[in-house]
Amino acid sequence: MTHQVQLEDTEFWTIKSQFMDYTYDVKVHVPQEAPPEGGFPIYYVLDGNSYFHFAHDVIKLQSRNAPKTLISPAIVVGIGHHGEYEERSKRRFYDFTPAADQYVYPERLKGADIGFHGGAEKFLAFLEQELMPVVHDKYSVDQTKQALFGHSLSGLFVLITLFKRPDLFQYYLATSPSIWWNDHEIVGTAERFFRDGKLEKLEDKKKLLITVGSKETFMVDDARELYSLINKHRHLNLTTDLYVAEDENHASIVPTIMSRAFRVVHA
C-alpha cells in the first residue's frame, strides 16, 4: 500500500495487487467521530472512480440523522482504476467477469475491442487477501457489517462473489448487474450455488438487494428472472429483494438507488 494524501474525511492511496499485477486507486471515507464498540459498518464500492463520491455523500449527509434515514456513520472504500476511460473500461471487463472456456457475445459487442476478460476469481482473491486485510488493520471495522456494492459489470461481480464466496460479506448490493454476460452464465452459477447447499453452511445471515432501472429493457427481465430463481430456493440464511426504479436508465440508476441500497445494512 502506498499512502498518498488525506483531505478532510477522505484518504487517497494506492495498492499493488500481486494477483492482478495491477495498481488500484483507493479512496476511503472515515467518519470523524469515535467508532462505536465493534467498529464502523463498511461499504466496499466497486468502480470507485465513478461511484465513491455518491457513496461518500450518502453516508456523510444522512448519518447526521440516523434514526430517520437509517444510515449510520460508516466507512466507505472506493476501489478504482487508473488511466483514460477506454483503458478503465477494458480493465472492468477483465476484473469483473469470470473465466470461461468460451464466450458468447451479444450483437452489440461483436467486433468491439473490450480487451481481455475472465479475471474475476483473481480480483476476488485481491479483495480478500490483499485489500481487506489492509483495511481491517488500518481502520476500525465491524466485520459483521460489511457490504459490497457494484453496478453493471461490477454488479455482476457482486453476484459472483455471493455465489462463490458468500461468507466474505454480509450484504450484497447489485445494481443493474450484467446478468446477460456470456449468455447468462451467472444463472448457472446461481443454480450450482443452491444445489451445493452452501447457504446451509453459513454462520451468519446474508442480504442481497438487486436494483435496476425500469428503462433498462432486457436488464429488467434478467433481474426479475434471477430474483425468481433465488426465491425458488428461499432460505433463512439469505434474504433477497428486488427494486425496479421507475423511469431510471442504466446511467441514472446509481444516484437514484444508493440511499435505498445502503439502508439494507441497517434494516
How many structurally independent domains? 1
Q: Give the helix level as a range of percent.
A: 25-40%
Order of helices and strands: EEEEHHEHHEHEHEHEH
What is the count of DSSP helices, taking H or I runs of 4+ residues? 8
Sequence of strands across the biggest β-sheet: 1-2-3-5-4-6-7-8-9
- Distance between the ends: 34 Å
CATH class: Alpha Beta
Radius of gyration: 18 Å
- Secondary structure tally: strands: 9
Profile the largest sheet. 9 strands, mixed
Describe this structure in words.
The protein is α/β, with parallel strands linked by helices. The protein starts with a strand and ends with a helix. The longest helix has 19 residues, at about 120-140. A hairpin with a 2-residue loop joins strand 1 (about 1-5) and strand 2 (about 10-15). Helix content is about 40%, strand content about 25%. The chain contains 8 helices and 9 strands. Helix 1 (about 50-60) crosses helix 8 (about 255-265) and helix 5 (about 155-165) runs parallel beside helix 6 (about 180-195). The protein has a single domain, classed as 3-Layer(aba) Sandwich (Rossmann fold). Keywords: Hydrolase. This is Alpha/beta hydrolase. InterPro entries: AB_hydrolase_fold, Esterase-like, Siderophore_Hydrolase_D.
